[in-house]
Specification:
mainly alpha, 284 residues, 9 helices
Length: 284
């Protein structure tokens, strides 16, 4: 029972932390660099708070794993040992400093906070790329896999967070909003391609490093994730080549775009859940 609670804590912490980081990057990039004039920061503040809180929960989950179960999740001695004596602890300190900076920026009145937060959250995603299964392999993959995972997270964050930003009520004119959507749609070509190609290479590195001892549960969840990402890609292509070019022709096209994006966001949530499960499973 205690092991189940520990795994549940780890799953929830990872899902919230990765989800908040991904959404923050894309949301802030869209509002800071593509929309140019948005003042929507309610979602921004919520995401920054979730990122901070989930980081604390993740530390507790690691302490429970290193110690004797859930009761050590709040044991000061075990928590301090995890922070000072493990690689995770050093990475956690860096993430916590980043989270504090995000909170400061999110609640500050500065005009360029979206751009600043896009940079900070982007750096956070790069750091997250060097955790989990990325540190398992040696040789060329020891440095290539963290870079691939960083690219995967940045591209995925742009994709998912941008979708979230599009659904928010804009504080700019409809024409400016449509232009921002078109800019996002164009860059989205490269983001989707980066997600797909880096995902294939990451899967190859993890699965074929030990081809004779693959975990069937891991393979099933990975296959399910690939199917969901494939569905998201189909929706993205439909939006790009059919819906977005027709936005200015009819209000119905805007409604259709938002409906498809909400479906894509639901699929994105499922992907984050699946990735969080994969993160606590061994591929082999």
């Amino acid at each position: 029972m205690s092991d189940n609670i520990t795994y549940a804590l780890m799953f929830v912490a990872r899902a919230l932390h990765y989800g908040a980081a991904l959404a923050l990057f894309g949301y802030c990039f869209f509002n800071g660099f593509l929309l140019r004039g948005s003042s929507q920061d309610g979602v921004l503040k919520a995401l920054a708070l979730i990122f901070m809180a989930s980081g604390i929960l993740w530390l507790g989950a690691e302490a429970a794993t290193a110690g004797d179960g859930p009761t050590d999740a709040y044991n000061p001695t075990v928590l301090w040992a995890v922070i000072t004596e493990t690689a995770f602890g050093k990475a956690w300190l860096a993430q916590t400093l980043t989270a504090l900076l995000m909170l400061f920026l999110a609640f500050s009145p500065m005009l360029e906070k979206f751009r600043a937060l896009a940079i900070v959250s982007g750096l956070s995603l790069v750091a997250l790329g060097d955790t989990g299964h990325a540190v398992m392999l040696g040789g060329t993959w020891a440095w290539a896999l963290p870079l691939l995972q960083a690219l995967h997270l940045l591209a995925g964050g742009f994709w998912i967070g941008g979708l979230l930003a599009i659904t928010a009520q804009p504080t700019v004119s409809p024409s400016e909003w449509r232009m921002a959507v078109m800019r996002y749609s164009f860059i989205g070509h490269f983001a989707v391609l980066a997600v797909v190609l880096s995902g294939i290479l990451i899967s190859y590195a993890l699965l074929w490093s030990h081809p004779m001892s693959l975990n069937p549960v891991y393979l099933f969840i990975l296959a399910l994730k690939l199917l969901v990402v494939g569905a998201m890609t189909v929706f993205a292509l439909f939006n790009r080549y059919y819906v977005v070019p027709r936005l200015s022709l009819s209000a119905k096209n805007t409604v259709r775009l938002l409906q498809i994006i909400r479906t894509d966001l639901a699929l994105s949530l499922l992907v984050i859940i699946l990735v969080s499960i994969l993160g606590i499973l061994s591929p082999n």
